[in-house]
Design a protein that fits this description.
The protein is an alpha/beta fold. It contains eight helices and five strands; from the N terminus they run ααβαβαβααααββ. The chain starts with 12 loop residues before the first helix and ends with a strand. Bound molecules: zinc ion.
């Protein structure tokens, strides 16, 4: 089953199980046959006083990138952090840390996407910081510092997702320790608007 997604061999078993579940859910979405059941008040009441998500997803705020829909999930399955351009500032990092340390999720999905407004804005304005969107641009410009002649926004978004993993590993002891202990796997993904597919980078 996992071979069809070309998963790397070093994924811890529990993270692999959840990642395959989500990628299968994405195929349900693509095929127009969602199966999510946990979308009722009854589900919410079951989790009224606790939660046990099996993955944390860092996704863009973009209205087209809705993790629960594109992964075919219901209430209580995903701990979602959404911020423009999946830019990893302090509050974002600490939100992920909560899911890793307190909720013990085994899987972190970094979900970049096509046609991201942050990538387009950054390309138009690099390297200026003019007082608008300062913290967001400061999270995105380092990729352009390394490779200024990026012309494809979608390629830029994927390079940014790769960079975000580096940032999280460097700035978060909780995330780094969990990864090194084999308790957390970080899956770098890209959402393709034309096909609806979530592809591993
Ligand atoms: Zn975006």
């Amino acid at each position: 089953m996992e071979n069809k997604y070309n998963l790397p061999a070093d994924i811890p078993e529990n993270a692999k199980k959840e990642l395959i579940k989500l990628l299968n859910g994405n195929r349900n979405f693509v095929n127009g046959k969602p199966t999510a059941q946990n979308m009722t008040l009854e589900t919410l009441q079951k989790y009224a006083f606790h939660q046990e998500p099996y993955a944390v997803v860092l996704s863009c705020s973009d209205s087209r990138v809705v993790p629960e829909i594109i992964f075919d999930c219901g209430i209580g399955e995903l701990f979602v952090v959404r911020v423009a351009g999946i830019t990893a500032g302090p509050n974002v990092i600490e939100s992920i840390e909560y899911a890793v340390k307190k909720l013990q999720v085994p899987l972190l999905i970094l979900l970049g996407h096509d046609d991201c407004g942050v990538m387009k804005y950054a390309k138009e304005h690099y390297p200026e910081i003019d007082g608008n969107f300062t913290s967001i641009l400061n999270c995105v410009y380092p990729v352009l510092d390394k490779e200024e002649d990026i012309t494809c926004h979608n390629y830029f978004a994927q390079q940014h997702t790769i960079w975000v993993e580096d940032v999280l590993m460097e700035r978060s002891k909780i995330i780094r320790d969990a990864v090194e202990a084999g308790k957390l796997y970080i899956a770098k993904c890209h959402f393709d608007h034309s096909t609806g597919l979530v592809n591993l980078i």
